[in-house]
Task: inverse folding
């Protein structure tokens, strides 16, 4: 799987990988990435089935995590900070479970917690889509019947969107407690980095400073 990828900053700087949510693409991180490119090599792929990356025969969070592993190897990145929104957050924490030595810190923005969510598949929008519609039923099925969350041994920040979000905030808080993660709530709904970009960036920057990243 060869992913279309956007980059900012110097390749000699510490790496930060940004993973977008379902139906999005790496361009959603443009403003956030630009604000961190002064000291980070920021890498934002279009994940499989999204944007300019290839469509695939199968989609799962393990496959997204495997793609991430290949991406790090392709960029010769030994360790990276992972920032994941929604679907990208699940891919990020699944990767951190499997390969903690490759992750220096983890930021999960409105990542669905590993509890049955009872999500329903909406009708397909009309017209051409910027992503593969076939991924949605596969991802929703996995979110509705997730496997238990394993141990994550890296510093973790969880950013919740508050009451405007469709995700269960109490379960996100429980996930933060299970992971001994820092929890920050920004009352912006599911798209925190888009609706409150300055506050989201400030929370990430403070977290990385506290962890000496």
Result:
């Amino acid at each position: 799987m060869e992913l279309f990828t956007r980059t900012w900053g110097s390749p000699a700087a510490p790496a930060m990988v940004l993973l977008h949510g379902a139906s999005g693409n790496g361009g959603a991180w443009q403003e956030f990435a630009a604000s961190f490119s002064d000291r980070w090599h920021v890498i934002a792929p279009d994940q499989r089935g999204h944007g300019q990356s290839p469509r695939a025969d199968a989609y799962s969070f393990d496959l997204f995590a495997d793609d991430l592993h290949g991406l790090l190897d392709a960029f010769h990145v030994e360790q990276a900070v992972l920032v994941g929104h929604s679907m990208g957050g699940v891919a990020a924490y699944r990767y951190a479970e499997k390969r903690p030595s490759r992750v220096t810190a983890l930021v999960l923005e409105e990542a669905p917690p590993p509890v049955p969510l009872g999500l329903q598949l909406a009708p397909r929008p009309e017209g051409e889509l910027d992503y593969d519609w076939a991924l949605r039923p596969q991802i929703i099925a996995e979110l509705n019947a997730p496997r238990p969350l394993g141990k994550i041994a890296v510093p973790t920040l969880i950013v919740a969107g508050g009451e405007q979000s469709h995700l269960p905030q109490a379960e996100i808080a429980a996930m933060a407690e299970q992971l001994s993660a820092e929890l920050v709530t920004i009352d912006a709904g599911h798209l925190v980095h888009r609706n409150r970009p300055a506050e989201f960036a400030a929370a990430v920057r403070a977290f990385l400073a506290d962890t000496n990243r």
